[in-house]
Each structure stands twice: as structure tokens, then as C-alpha cells.
Amino acid sequence: MGKYLAKRLGQSLLILLGVTVVTFLLLFLLPADPARQIAGRSASAATVESVRQQLGLHLPLWEQYLRYLGKLLQGDLGRSFVQRTEVGELVWSRLPATLLLMAGAIGFELLIGVPAGIVAAMRRGKPTDNAVMIASLVGVSAPQFVVGILLLYVFAVQLEWFPIGGYGTFAHLVLPAMTLGILGGGWYGRMTRSSMVDVLRQDYIRTARAKGAAEQRIVLVHALRNAFLPLLAMIGIDIGLFMSGAVVVESVFGWPGIGQLAWQAIQQVDIPIIMGVTLVSAVFIVAGNLLADLLAPLVDPRIRLR
Amino acid sequence: MALLEVEDLTVSFAGSGRRVTVLDGVSFTLDAGEIVGLVGESGCGKSITAMSVMRLLPSPPSRVDRGGVRFAGTDLLSLPERRMRAMRGNRIGMIFQEPMTSLNPTFTVGWQIDEALRLHTGLNAEQRRARCLELMGLVGVGAAERRLGQYPHELSGGLRQRVMIAMALACGPEMIIADEPTTALDVTIQAQILDLLVTLRRDLGTAILMITHDLGVVAEYCDRVVVMYAGKVVEKAPVESLFARPRHPYTTGLLASMPRLDSGRGPLASIPGMVPSPGSRPPGCPFADRCPNVLPRCAPEMPPLETGPDGHAFACWNPMP
Question: Which CATH number fits the domain that encloses residue A145?
């Protein structure tokens, strides 16, 4: 177990290092010139050049990268080109909102996806099953901004149940979490269904029936635990996904999370923020997967971590 | 009165566009404390019979068209599902062929044995624990404390089958249905498990319906035999009578295809052809096209199952002498 953890952590560090290299390269391949962007369109060439010197953008790429990496190893994500504030602080201040949205979204996905998948599996081939499958397909394929705006219109504008946007109370969380959750819930529903259908065919389910267990107990106790493993892996992936991919939803609902920070930074070619956000997202993706793998033996005792 | 009475049981499955009869008028009985062997080739309907008695066949597609199953005087087929559940695992235990896959991999064996007690008895946690330990002793599992905390994948096939038996025995059932309980095990373990079942029958008086394709098992462990072929019972007899004088040519064929140590060398006999699949069975005797004694009337006309004075019954127009 200790050895396994050390190995996985070592791999994770390598992955994160790779992420910094690739992101750095991609950002400098961009046709936009950050120095020009910051100095302003009407600035003279001399001004732009002095900005460039100031930011260290005149140095060779590899030297810039090594400097960045050196600071990173000391826990310094650098300063924003535009706002001149610490990137670490900026990301840190946005983290609670993003984590809250992530938790809400995953909770919502599980809440609608798992029961729907279970019901579909139990009624396989019947109208209920077809209805769930069609609904999940709609959920999976609907664009986030459409769902978001639709929910806003119905529940915030027409019914006035929830605020139109912003952050602070549970009511603020509901609609953005629902938007993300409806999409993800479709995946969870389909995954739960196929996993359940597979498990319900197993011999040990017949044994449970022969033992006199009721159908409900068989599904919720005997089958669900066995069917949960693929879902656990998916939750791990979602932890990373929502860390980086909630940009659209955060924009639609004015949610002050990391997605918005990233969106602004991309528009302003604010390289240190983009780097910082990418890196933090990568950390969460890696950590989410690691967490799912570490928890897997608790769900299925046959799994050994090696 | 018999403990289990299966009377004219006829079960069909909805196939693609038509119904296919898989069990056709199956009748037999099992007395309290008796071991009855249900034998036949694969696809004869042995397991379907067991599953029908337990009402574990999914319906649809399956359907009981005719007949009845009475257990200790209760008509199982008309029992509401809730009361049928109170029978399963409580008064009727079941053991399956594959101990590898028949135990839930994500729960400890202790939890799985305990579940039967939780479902059917009012015992408290302490009493159930004591009963689980007792059961492990009963089925001959040593280091019971430790075993109860283990998962199925940590146990050998033989131990898992013992755990299955402990689970089936948990509530002190009057009858156990053992569906090929040793087919998936090593030969040495097979004998151990069968001996265990016989010991349990002797000590606890549990009746056993033993489903097997192995006539050796039947000869050694059973009191009576029911031979099935293509969804029908073709011969029923006490073990001694059946082995001394098999009357149905199918039974003779089965006996002849048993490997024996005393019959010298030479090729092992076999029955030519295959069991007709449900849906392509002839109106008469289903064995007609493989039968060495076949008469013109066999294919169109099913012989009745007639019981002789010695309790030996067979369905054949031209039986073995």
C-alpha cells in the first residue's frame, strides 16, 4: 500500500511536470503578443518593448520556463500580467466556489443518475427503461449553455424560486449544480444501467433470491455494491472535469469560480493565470483519479493495489 | 404424505413468436429425510425443475402451464410472493453448481450466512453470530472465526461450497435442493462435499433433492432416482431397483456410458445423437430417434409412465427386459 502510493504519487508528479511543459509551449505558440495586449493598442513600440522586458518575455523560451519552474517548486505561481496580483492568491480565492459547485454537481448527478439507472435496469426493455434511456440521451447531448439558460428562464425568471445568478447561499448553488448535474446525470444513468444489468445476471444474485431476499434488497444491497465500481471511477474523473470544465456554467450563472478566472485570463492573454489554472486543474484530475483508485478496494475487496 | 410433491408440472418459455415447452408433465415426490437424485443429460430440464420448485424462473418469459408443486402440504405455485420468500432460504435451502460465482464477491462469507438468519429469524446479533459459528462447524470449516471475516475470493472452491451449504442450512430447512453441487469441484473435494450432505441428512433429517448427471453419485448417495429426458420423467425407481434392472432404454444407455473399473478395456459406450432441443421434440417419446428398441408407435405416441408393484415406474412401449 505504501509502495503503491509512492509509485502513484511519483507518476502524478511526472504528469504534472508534463502539463507545465505542454501548456507553456502552447501558450507561447499563440499568435497573440501579451506585451502588446498589456501595453494597449495605441502604445509605442518602445513601451511595448519595456513591458516585454519587465515581464521577462524577451528571454529565450527555455529560460522563461526554467524560471517559472524554479518559482513553482517554491510554491510560487507567479504574478498576473494584468492585475499584478499573486496567481496563487487569485486561484485560492476562487477555489471554494469551484469546489462547492463541483460537490453540488456530482451530488446532483448521483442523485438523478443512479436511481434512474437502477430503475431502467430493473425494467429492462420496458417503457420505463426506454424513457430513462431517451431522457439520458437528451441530458448527455444538450449543450450546457442551453440547459443553463433554460433553467434560468423557468426557475429564476418565471417561477422566481432561485436567484438569477451570483454566489453565497444554497439557493444560488441549485441551478448551476443542476445544469452540470443534468448533463452528467445522463452519463451516470447509462453507466449505472449497464453495470446493473450485468450484475443482475450474475449467479450470486440468484443465490440471494434463493435465500429469500426481496427484490428491493437484492438490487440495493447485493447488486448496487457490485455495480458501483465503474461509477466510482467516473466520480474521480468528474472531480477533475468540473475543476476545469465549468467555464460555461460559471459564465451563465455569474459563479465566481476558477472557470471564470480562466475565461478572463484567456481573453487577456494573462499567461501566468492560465498556467496556474491549468496546473491546479491538472492537480485535481490526477488527485481525483488517484482517490477513486484508492477507494476501489473498499467497494470491491478483490481489488489489490499494487 | 410426501414432503415435496411435484405433480404434472409443465413449464413453457416465450420464444421468438411461439411458446416452447421445456418441462412436460413432470411428477415426482420427495419424502422427509430422503435423498432423491434427479438425473439426465444437460438440457433435460433438471435445473428448470429445481428453479420452478423455488419459483426462481423469471416470469415472463417462463410460465407454468399446468400442474402443481406442494411442499409440506402448501401449494407453492399459488403462494403470494411474500410468503414464497419466507419459504426460500428458510424452509427450503438451495445449493448451486458454481461456488466460485454463487457467492457475492463484495461481502464477507459471515455476512452472507448471517443474512439468511437476518431475513428469516428473530435472533439478535449475538445469537446469529453463535449460529454462524455453529454452522461453520457443522459443515466442517475450521478456524470459523477467521473464515467468517473473509471474502469468497480468499477461500478455495471446496470451502466456498461448504459456505454455500452452511448458508442453505442456516435456518434449519426441511429440504435442500442441490443443483449439481459438486460438478465444479475436484474429485477428492466432490466426495467430501457429498459425504457432508449425507451426514447432514442423517444428523438433521434434511431431505435432499440432488440434481446431477453423475449416476455414480446417484448409486452411492441417493435413495431413489428420477430420470429425466427432454423435459419429461422417463423412469423413477428406488436406487437398487434402477441399477439392478433399468427398464427405459435411455437409463440403460446412461448406465452403459458410465466409466467402470471392472468392465475391462475397450471404448466407453455412448448414446448416439443429442437431446432434442425444446421446440423440436416429437409428439411421442422424445428418445425415439436415439433409441435402440424403437417401435413404429414410439414417435407418434408418448408412452404413459406406469408404476409397477415394486414402485419402479417407466415410460416406454418396448422396455428393456
Answer: 1.10.3720.10
Helix H, strand E, coil C: the string for chain A is CHHHHHHHHHHHHHHHHHHHHHHHHHHHHCCCCHHHHHHCCCCCHHHHHHHHHHHCCCCCHHHHHHHHHHHHHCCCCCECCCCCCEHHHHHHHHHHHHHHHHHHHHHHHHHHHHHHHHHHHHCCCCHHHHHHHHHHHHHHHCCHHHHHHHHHHHHHHHCCCCCCCCCCCHHHHHHHHHHHHHHHHHHHHHHHHHHHHHHHCCHHHHHHHHCCCCHHHHHHHHHHHHHCHHHHHHHHHHHHHHHHHCHHHHHHHCCCCHHHHHHHHHHCCCHHHHHHHHHHHHHHHHHHHHHHHHHHHHHCCCCCCC
Residue A122 in any domain: the answer is yes
pLDDT tens readout for residues A107-140: 999 999 999 999 999 888 889 999 999 988 888 8
| Residue of A204, A299, A303 to mutate, interface with B, max B Cβ within 10 Å | A204
Flag whether A158 is in a domain.
yes
> Domain residues for A136?
100-267
B94 close to A (CB below 8 A): yes
Instruction: Please state the ipTM of this predicted complex.
Output: 0.87
Whether A207 sits inside 8 A of B103 (CB atoms) is yes
Mutation target for B interface from A201, A211, A231, A302: give the one with most B CBs within 10 A. Answer: A211
Q: Is residue A71 part of a domain?
A: no
What is this structure's pTM? 0.82
B36 at interface of A, judged by CB pairs closer than 8 A: no
